[in-house]
């Protein structure tokens, strides 16, 4: 056999490349094995998350959406925080300690010294008063949390501030520690950018930030990402391991976020679908961890309590017994649990003994007879917010469930402003039914009861969220009592009583409590969950480490 | 060519008329949809008073025709208003999102034309031969394949499994080209930053490939059909019988005439795509205008809807104007 020289040379080169590649592969796989299947592709001092909603504003006195809050939490700080996973214990942040005076009508806060704002100015009692006055005078977004309780803010000393309360509120620290609400802003920067038409410098605060928090806003590329970098003079210091840069990447599709996560290109995300989380929990991928935690997010289907035919309590009960709750839990790949009453199981005041509706078609048919509809033959419309998959599933299961007792349900998807216009139209003009989420702004049962079930909160009266136009004088009275009750045992009793009355009236369907799910790289250490601080992270405590 | 000048002026005057018509229709349509965007503006937990105040602030309490007149007055002053959803001036939103769409669409269009036209010509010339069959099958697949599926498949294979391209985004986070035109490819070149330019090129590959595959089929088919028609014409047979070389007949006489419908079609498609491709934008996190417009529509964000409508109307008319000019160059018989 005779081989041409060129062929020999080419063959040799090919063999050499193959051998080299093989050796390299051997080295990668056996000599230097990666710790996990998925390894971080992001720098070790950078924390990258994918989020589905673009932030609207950087102004903590305006922000009332998760997107904005996610960034604000890294730049601004509160006086107090919740401790660890607790919703009843607090830790000092900007305040060093606090005390209630004058039978709980004055809250005095002693402030920490030597804290600087991003611009270099010093934090003191004046800044606290300035921030509270600004929040209340602007009367936007989160101001409603403080407006009903805070009468006046007084500077007592450079580092002592006093809040005079309108009544001895049992949930003051809850309100102060909540994720929405009171962040201290830099008075100097606000004053510097204020104008005659814009006395609160809303324009400047919309896209800029000056707080005391550990990170500063570096870049905001609309529609793409936001970059934050560490604030060198942060009062807690940077000696321990921390992430130094934060990247918030706007990702629109959960499927893209899932691929980015599996490639190690993002460090954490909450925006996967229940199916994806279910897959990660069933077949764990090494290098990705999933936190599944009880949360405060609850889902209901509201019914029009004043408008025929649903003003008929027997019909509402028939529907409550006909709904297939297990089907909904199954549709969410078992990640949710059925609600027992108004409150989720981690909220104190939750009643584990509360009698609850479960699917029972016989009972449902009996109630249909009592209601005067033995044959059914009713048509109802249920609305949900377009694009919300969980709500869509809940409504479709409603349609399927009620078909069995002769009620035809038409499922309609609309935008939130359209739905809001419909259900605020009036007790007789509202829609038959609509799916509705609740998550409290501070964890007190009153937050749930008052906003959704108090007669005062009809959209046509003082409120907005009681779109089922439920009004039970006895319930109203108990809710008002709960508002000022300082004794915990008594508060819990009241909550139980209120829920029994509400559930008996069946004003809405009590569907599910939805767990909080977050997927994270195994290399992220220091994450602390709290049911109030959802959709944000404790950025400053996070650090990365490649170690199992 | 002076006549063309008059023509352009006429068309620009027409633009004004079209603009009035389109804006009136859009304004009425978006306002008859039930829903009060003031609810969004006031934010959750807003009291009745806060919503009423927001309604007044946004001038939604006035009758629709008055609102329209107010809006027109502002537009004449160059004020597009403030978006209810993003709370930024609409003009700033458009300046952020439109260049991204423009860049992606233009790159996709160039790819589609560069491949589609030659492919169409070859298919016509080699009618019913192998290349024709291959191009037919691939064109039909490209046209009939749902674009989101195509995008996700490319993302999964080329991006995720093979790791050849970034999964999503317009540029790697952290690289910030200086803003000159808003088109990253051009901005990075002007700045002479080759590293960033390659990064942008790398990032645009997958979405551009997806979009161009979807358009490519159509361009190929139209080029082929129109080329076949022209090749049947008498003047081509005459040219051939005169003994002109085949290439000359094909490229000088046939192609020029065959391109007219291709130009029309491409211009329409281009104008249409500049309105944003929401599915491609969603899959690849392309910060384009399609996603912006669709969120604006869902939220009944009137200022954003109206602002985008104006922009798209103007763009569409300009693109078609350019197509008309190209017509005149291709076919000197066309006189305006």
Please give a structural write-up:
The complex is a heterodimer of chains A (548) and B (336). By secondary structure, chain A is an alpha+beta fold. Chain A is 32% helix and 22% strand. Chain A has 16 helices and 19 strands. In chain A, the strands form 4 sheets. In chain A, strands 1, 8, 9, 10, 11, 12, 13, 14, 15, 16 and 17 form an 11-stranded mixed sheet that branches. In chain A, a hairpin with a 3-residue loop joins β8 (215-221) and β9. In chain A, α9 (313-322) packs antiparallel against α11 (361-371), α14 (445-453) packs antiparallel against α15 (473-484) and α15 (473-484) packs antiparallel against α16 (488-505). Chain A is globular, with a radius of gyration of 27 Å. Chain A starts with a helix and ends with a strand. In chain A, 48% of the residues are buried. The mean pLDDT of chain B is 86. Chain B is built from 14 helices and no strands. In chain B, α1 packs antiparallel against α14 and α8 (184-190) crosses α9. Chain B has 336 residues and is mainly alpha-helical. Chain B is globular, with a radius of gyration of 24 Å. Chain B has helices at residues 2-32, 38-42, 48-57, 64-76, 90-125, 130-144, 147-161, 184-190, 194-232, 234-241, 246-273, 278-284, 289-298, 302-330. The chains are: A alpha+beta (548), B mainly alpha (336). Chains A and B meet through β10, α7 and α13 of A and α3, α5, α7, α12 and α13 of B.
Furnish the topology, listing elements before pairings.
The complex is a heterodimer of chains A (548) and B (336).
Chain A: H1 5-31, E1 46-51, H2 66-75, E2 80-82, E3 90-92, E4 95-101, E5 106-111, H3 125-138, E6 150-157, E7 160-165, H4 172-177, H5 187-193, H6 202-207, E8 215-221, E9 225-230, E10 245-250, H7 254-262, E11 268-269, H8 274-282, E12 288-303, H9 313-322, H10 325-331, E13 337-338, H11 361-371, E14 378-385, H12 389-403, E15 407-414, H13 416-423, E16 433-438, H14 445-453, H15 473-484, H16 488-505, E17 508-521, E18 524-525, E19 543-544
Parallel strand pairs in A: 1-10, 1-11, 14-15, 14-16
Antiparallel strand pairs in A: 2-3, 4-5, 5-7, 6-7, 8-9, 9-10, 11-17, 12-16, 12-17, 13-17, 18-19
Helix pairs in contact in A: 9-11, 14-15, 15-16
Chain B: H1 2-32, H2 38-42, H3 48-57, H4 64-76, H5 90-125, H6 130-144, H7 147-161, H8 184-190, H9 194-232, H10 234-241, H11 246-273, H12 278-284, H13 289-298, H14 302-330
């Amino acid at each position: 056999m005779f081989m041409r020289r060129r062929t020999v040379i080419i063959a040799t080169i090919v063999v050499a490349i193959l051998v080299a590649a093989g050796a390299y592969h051997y080295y990668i796989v056996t000599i230097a094995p990666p710790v996990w299947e998925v390894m971080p592709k992001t720098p070790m001092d950078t924390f990258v998350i994918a989020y589905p909603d673009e932030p609207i504003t950087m102004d903590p006195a305006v922000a009332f959406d998760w997107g904005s809050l996610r960034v604000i939490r890294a730049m601004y700080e509160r006086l107090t925080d919740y401790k660890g996973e607790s919703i009843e214990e607090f830790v000092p942040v900007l305040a060093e300690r606090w005390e209630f005076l004058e039978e709980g009508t004055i809250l005095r806060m002693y402030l920490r010294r030597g804290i600087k704002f991003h611009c270099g100015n010093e934090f003191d009692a004046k800044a606290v008063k300035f921030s509270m006055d600004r929040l209340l005078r602007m009367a936007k977004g989160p101001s409603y949390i403080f407006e009903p309780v805070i009468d006046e803010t007084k500077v007592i000393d450079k580092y002592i501030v006093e809040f005079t309360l309108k009544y001895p509120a049992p949930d003051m620290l809850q309100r102060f520690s909540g994720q929405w609400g009171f962040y201290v802003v830099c008075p100097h920067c606000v004053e510097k950018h204020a104008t005659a038409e814009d006395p609160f410098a809303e324009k400047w605060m919309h896209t800029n930030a000056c707080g005391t928090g550990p990170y500063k806003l570096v870049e905001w590329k609309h529609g793409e990402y936001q970059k934050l970098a560490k604030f060198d003079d942060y009062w807690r210091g940077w000696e321990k391991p921390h992430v130094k840069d934060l990247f918030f990447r706007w990702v629109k599709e959960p499927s893209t976020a899932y691929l980015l996560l599996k490639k190690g290109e993002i460090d954490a995300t909450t925006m996967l679908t229940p199916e994806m989380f279910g897959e990660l929990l069933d077949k764990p991928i090494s290098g990705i961890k999933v936190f599944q935690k009880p949360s405060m997010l609850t889902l209901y289907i509201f019914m029009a309590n004043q408008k025929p035919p649903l003003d008929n309590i027997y019909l509402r009960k028939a529907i409550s017994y006909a709904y297939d709750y297990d089907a909904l839990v199954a549709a969410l790949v078992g990640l949710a649990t059925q609600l027992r009453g108004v409150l989720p199981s981690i909220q104190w005041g939750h009643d584990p003994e509360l009698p609850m509706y479960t699917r029972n078609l016989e009972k449902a048919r009996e109630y249909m007879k009592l209601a005067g509809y033995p044959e059914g033959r009713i048509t109802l419309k249920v609305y949900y917010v377009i694009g919300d998959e969980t709500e869509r599933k809940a409504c479709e299961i409603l349609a399927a469930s009620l078909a069995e007792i002769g009620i035809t349900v038409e499922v309609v998807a609309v935008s939130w402003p359209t739905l809001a216009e419909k259900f605020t139209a009036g007790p007789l003009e509202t829609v038959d039914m609509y799916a509705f989420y609740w998550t409290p702004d501070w964890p007190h049962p009153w937050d749930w009861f008052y906003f959704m079930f108090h007669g005062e909160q009809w959209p046509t009266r003082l409120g907005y969220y009681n779109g089922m136009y439920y009004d039970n004088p006895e319930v109203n009275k108990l809710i008002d009592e709960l508002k000022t009750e300082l004794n915990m045992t008594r508060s819990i009793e009241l909550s139980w009583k209120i829920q029994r009355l509400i559930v008996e009236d069946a004003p809405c369907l009590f569907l599910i409590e939805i767990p909080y799910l977050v997927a994270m790289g195994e290399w992220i250490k220091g994450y602390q969950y709290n049911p109030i601080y959802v959709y944000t992270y404790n950025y400053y405590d996070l650090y990365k480490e490649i170690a199992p | 060519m002076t006549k063309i000048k008059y023509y352009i002026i006429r068309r620009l005057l027409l633009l004004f008329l079209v603009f009035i018509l389109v804006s009136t229709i859009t304004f009425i349509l978006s306002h008859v949809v039930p829903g009060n965007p003031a609810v969004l503006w006031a934010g959750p937990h807003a009291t009745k008073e806060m919503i009423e105040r927001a309604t007044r602030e946004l001038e939604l309490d006035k009758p629709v025709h008055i609102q329209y007149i107010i809006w027109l007055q502002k537009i004449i002053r160059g004020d597009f208003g403030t978006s209810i959803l993003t709370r930024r001036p609409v003009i700033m939103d458009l300046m952020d999102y439109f260049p991204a769409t423009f860049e992606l669409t233009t790159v996709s269009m160039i790819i589609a034309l560069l491949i589609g036209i030659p492919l169409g010509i070859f298919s016509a010339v080699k009618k019913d031969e192998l290349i024709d069959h291959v191009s037919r099958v691939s064109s039909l697949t490209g046209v009939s394949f749902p674009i989101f599926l195509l995008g996700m498949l490319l993302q999964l294979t080329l991006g995720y499994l093979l790791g050849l391209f970034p999964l999503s985004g317009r540029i790697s986070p952290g690289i910030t080209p200086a803003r000159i035109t808003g088109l990253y490819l051009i901005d990075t070149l002007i700045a002479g930053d080759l590293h960033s330019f390659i990064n942008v090129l790398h990032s645009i590959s997958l979405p551009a490939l997806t979009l161009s595959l979807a358009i490519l089929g159509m361009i190929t088919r139209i080029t082929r059909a129109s080329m076949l028609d022209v090749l049947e014409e008498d003047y081509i047979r005459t040219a051939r019988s005169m003994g002109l070389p085949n290439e000359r007949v094909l490229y000088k006489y046939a192609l020029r005439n065959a391109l007219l419908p291709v130009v029309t079609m491409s211009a329409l498609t281009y104008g249409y795509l500049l309105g944003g491709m929401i599915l491609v934008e969603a899959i690849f996190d392309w910060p384009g205008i399609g996603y912006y417009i669709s969120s604006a529509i869902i939220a009944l964000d009137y200022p954003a809807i109206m602002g985008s409508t104006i922009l798209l109307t103007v763009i569409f008319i300009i693109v078609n104007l350019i197509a008309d000019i190209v017509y005149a160059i291709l076919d000197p018989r066309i006189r305006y």
